[in-house]
């Protein structure tokens, strides 16, 4: 399920990607990787602005920094960064480009938002590793529109390349079936 539907209060879509789930990173390593990528992000700021989204290839490189795992609990392979560490990573991303900083801020709070799920649902989301790509749609309602074998989620301006499991009303839904995968 992608985007939101009129009956939902808010919805999130999730997938995995990025650096290896087995690779252990801490806040300093993620910050260093973000700094190493800063020049590339800055050089593509005009492209990001023109497209209204971060190009897929650049987003994949940003994911490889490990930023998606900055606030994921260590027991799920995350960096479990302190607030100060997560803030430094977000600030570094924002120095390169405001849109990248916004994504880093969303990434920092997404595991916290998802932790409101039942423990088994949260564990299922991170079963494939700590680099969970998640998009939260909250009121006002967004819409997903098919474009070139992807989906454009107007709520956050990020393309989806494949079906995503969704969360609605505290329940995790299968990417291919509209039934709860876990119940609270």
Detailed description of the structure:
The chain is of the alpha+beta class and 184 residues long. The chain has one domain: Acyl-CoA dehydrogenase/oxidase, N-terminal domain (Butyryl-Coa Dehydrogenase, subunit A, domain 1), CATH 1.10.540. The chain has six helices and eight strands. Strands 2-1-6-7-8 form a five-stranded antiparallel beta sheet. A hairpin with a 4-residue loop joins strand 4 (150-153) and strand 5. Helix 1 (27-43) runs parallel beside helix 4 and helix 4 (83-96) packs antiparallel against helix 5. The chain starts with 10 loop residues before the first strand and ends with a strand.
What order do the helices and strands come in, and which of them pair?
Blueprint: E1 11-16, H1 27-43, H2 45-51, H3 56-63, H4 83-96, H5 98-114, H6 119-125, E2 132-137, E3 144-147, E4 150-153, E5 158-160, E6 166-168, E7 171-173, E8 180-182
Antiparallel strand pairs: 1-2, 1-6, 3-4, 4-5, 6-7, 7-8
The domain tally reads: 1
Taken from the alpha-carbon principal axes, the silhouette is: globular
Q: Average the pLDDT over all residues and give the rounded result.
A: 74
Tell me the radius of gyration. 16 Å
Report the uncertain regions: 1-14, 151-160, 167-184
Main sheet specs: 5 strands, antiparallel
CATH superfamily: Acyl-CoA dehydrogenase/oxidase, N-terminal domain
H/E element sequence? EHHHHHHEEEEEEE
Summarize this structure briefly.
With 184 residues, this protein is of the alpha+beta class.
Features:
disordered C terminus; alpha+beta; globular; 6 helices; five-stranded antiparallel sheet; 184 residues; three-stranded antiparallel sheet; Butyryl-Coa Dehydrogenase, subunit A, domain 1
